[in-house]
């Protein structure tokens, strides 16, 4: 089964079937019907692609309604530690986080539903990160949580003195200050 549930409801790991031979490999990174048959009926509208160097940490970001976004994330070059934090107020796992190493080598993907903060840190020299989203971006609706929030206490699996964050991410709120 290519879909593996995580300890947090609706957060799902997808491992595509990979066909390899001496020429290389082929995989189907997304199939609308396959995802729908497995309970993920999301209409993706945009693909995004970023490249970052070792220690770059992007996140923890989210979009508020009506611009909340579900994401399907993967790495096509390098390796990252990907993190999702459950911000769904009525969820039994509210405030819990899940992390997974995504890499070009393991070809795993993570489906992050609406209602989560999301971020990643690059563990390799460089990494190229791709993600599909199901809603447009709105600057007025963006939010975030500090990556080093003491309440969440996320293990980023990297020396935090080597982390590179944007000026915008340096001033994100703490988890306890979210409304």
Give the SSE layout:
Elements: E1 3-5, E2 12-14, E3 18-21, E4 24-27, H1 32-37, E5 46-53, E6 57-63, E7 71-77, E8 79-86, E9 97-103, E10 109-112, E11 116-122, E12 126-133, E13 142-144, H2 167-170
Ranges with pLDDT <50 over ≥5 residues? none
The biggest beta sheet reads: 6 strands, antiparallel
CATH architecture field:
Sandwich
What overall form do the CA principal axes indicate?
Answer: globular
Question: Which fold name is given in CATH as the topology?
Answer: Jelly Rolls
What is the CATH class?
Mainly Beta
| Count, helices | 2
Described by its quaternary structure, the protein is single chain
User: What is the CA-based Rg, rounded?
Assistant: 16 Å
- The strand count comes to 13
The CATH superfamily is known as Jelly Rolls
Strand order of the largest sheet: 1-2-10-7-12-5
Helix % is under 10%
Mean pLDDT across the residues is 96
Output the helix-strand order. Answer: EEEEHEEEEEEEEEH
Distance between the termini: 38 Å
Number of domains: 1
